[in-house]
């Protein structure tokens, strides 16, 4: 769809899912995860869509290991790494994506390993915290 509409929709999803497991569950039941993943796949050159889409995945899976693993199985890790590579020069996108990679890596050796294999370790995330 229209990139501006897609970006707006992602912002709405980010805000709706923020801090509410129940709302995140309702959004997932409505198939919002597919929409977010599709937006990330279809709009790689657009940093706003990449940043908001990855924040949406973060908010939809907050505090839920099963959902994080589900998103990784659906290719979210590769999409995050691609966003990092494509938009390394855009500080806000870089910061958003690295923060989410940090969250996804924190409680799972398997997820951390999959980012490490792609050449993204926790080091840049630590650097951003200072």
From TrEMBL:
<protein>
    <submittedName>
        <fullName>Uncharacterized protein</fullName>
    </submittedName>
</protein>
<keyword id="KW-0732">Signal</keyword>
<dbReference type="InterPro" id="IPR016024">
    <property type="entry name" value="ARM-type_fold"/>
</dbReference>
<dbReference type="InterPro" id="IPR011989">
    <property type="entry name" value="ARM-like"/>
</dbReference>
<feature type="signal peptide">
    <location>
        <begin position="1"/>
        <end position="19"/>
    </location>
</feature>
């Amino acid at each position: 769809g229209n990139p501006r509409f897609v970006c707006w929709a992602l912002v709405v999803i980010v805000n709706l899912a923020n801090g509410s497991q129940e709302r995140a569950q309702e959004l997932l039941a409505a198939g919002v995860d597919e929409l977010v993943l599709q937006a990330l796949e279809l709009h790689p050159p657009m940093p706003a869509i990449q940043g908001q889409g990855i924040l949406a995945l973060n908010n939809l899976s907050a505090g839920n290991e099963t959902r994080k693993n589900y998103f990784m199985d659906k290719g979210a890790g590769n999409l995050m790494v691609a966003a990092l590579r494509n938009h390394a020069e855009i500080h806000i996108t870089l910061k958003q994506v690295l923060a989410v990679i940090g969250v996804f890596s924190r409680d799972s050796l398997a997820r951390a390993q999959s980012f490490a294999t792609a050449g993204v370790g926790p080091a840049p995330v630590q650097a951003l915290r200072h």
